[in-house]
Design goal:
two-stranded parallel sheet; alpha/beta; binds nicotinamide-adenine-dinucleotide
Length: 321
């Protein structure tokens, strides 16, 4: 396989690429990332460092919106498989800048799909999100085939639009496309804007953390489980498929803070604020379909995952202090 990963310098992308390098059937790995300034680009450069030591890896600092360049890269490297992760993430930021999310998350996805079609690349994995679902019922998890997407934020709407374009390209050109809906991913290299990271930072700096009621909950999925889900998907691509990649259990914000306090050995100062627009109270996924079709089964418990995250986080603090 010659694989091209967009967004490969980011949190999920760099963790994925580290595992792809080790796969014997991956001959060449093209990493495309514009290194945008959504968060500190020094973090992204650091994520890239271990990847660049591998002879399999070719890094291109390029914008996915440059469709001609994407087509050129796909052709000259004879890419047969794309993992499309590049996006502007972040629910709250999308409320203030909806057009930006249309530009990168919708137009960027269409640009990649069209470049794939023109270059003859027929296999693509698209990183979608639990945010496409919108409102969460408390008594049952979201299931791909039973819950209609009703996004509550421009980010979720842009991801859903990306999914619709993926299905359209599958119908038009018979491309094999798998959409993976990730649920709150956490672990080493976590994005600094995400709650777990920003809470850990505030706790260590003795600053207040803002929470929206103790019952807010997330289906936290550990990064290695997400990476394994992507690797399994690469082995079983057939037509157009949509899968949840989640842990199938929820952690309330109260429990999350308690676990962080325990793992970091410090107490948090909490203040309650009103829930921001677009933020869902609860996320909860069902991974039954991914389990049946791909053999996906999350392995890392919350307790183990948060301990591993805290160990990495404290090492990072040490390096920077
Ligand atoms: P990230 O911001 O760490 O990684 C995204 C990468 O894409 C960044 O390195 C960025 O520089 C790059 N990028 C942005 N715009 C680009 C452009 N125009 N051209 C080329 N590269 C560009 O985010 P992440 O958390 O690793 O998320 C990866 C994917 O997974 C995204 O599509 C995100 O929407 C999706 N996702 C993430 C989560 C999560 O919890 N982290 C949950 C659901 C879905």
């Amino acid at each position: 396989m010659n694989v091209l990963v967009t967004g490969g310098a980011g949190f999920i992308g760099s963790n994925l690429c580290e595992c792809l390098i080790l796969q014997p059937d991956v001959k060449k790995l093209m990493v495309v990332d514009v290194l945008d300034e959504y968060y500190d680009i020094e973090i992204k450069k650091k994520n890239l460092k271990p990847l660049l030591r591998s002879e399999k890896v070719h890094f291109y600092q390029e914008d996915i919106l440059n469709e001609n360049r994407m087509e050129e890269l796909l052709k000259e490297n004879e890419v047969d498989t794309i993992v499309h992760l590049a996006a502007v993430p972040g629910v709250r930021n999308s409320i203030d800048k909806p057009s930006f999310y249309v530009d990168v998350d919708v137009k960027g996805t269409v640009s990649i799909l069209q470049a794939a079609k023109k270059s003859g690349c027929t296999r693509l994995i698209f990183a979608s999100s639990s945010s496409v679902y919108g409102h969460q019922l408390l008594d049952r998890p979201h299931h791909e085939e039973q819950t209609d997407p009703k996004p509550l934020s421009p980010y979720g709407a842009a991801k859903y639009a990306g999914e619709v374009f993926c299905e359209t390209f599958h119908r038009l050109y018979q491309m094999n496309i798998t959409v993976l809906r990730f649920f709150t991913v956490y672990g080493p290299r976590q994005r600094p804007d995400m709650a777990l990271f920003s809470f850990a930072k505030s706790i260590m700096e003795n600053r207040e953390i803002q929470i929206y009621g103790n019952q807010t909950a997330r289906d936290y999925t550990y990064i290695s489980d997400i990476v394994e889900g992507i690797l399994l998907s690469l082995k079983r691509m057939n037509g157009f498929q949509v899968y949840n990649l989640c842990s199938g259990r929820t952690v309330t914000v109260g429990k999350m803070v308690e676990s962080l306090e325990h793992a970091l050995g410090r107490k948090a100062k909490k203040i309650e604020i009103t829930r921001p627009l677009g933020d869902v109270r609860f996320t909860w996924g069902d991974y039954g379909l991914a389990n049946k079709m791909l053999g996906y089964k999350p392995r890392v418990s919350w307790e183990e995952g948060v301990t591993r995250f805290a160990t990495w986080f404290l090492q990072e603090l040490d390096v920077h202090s």
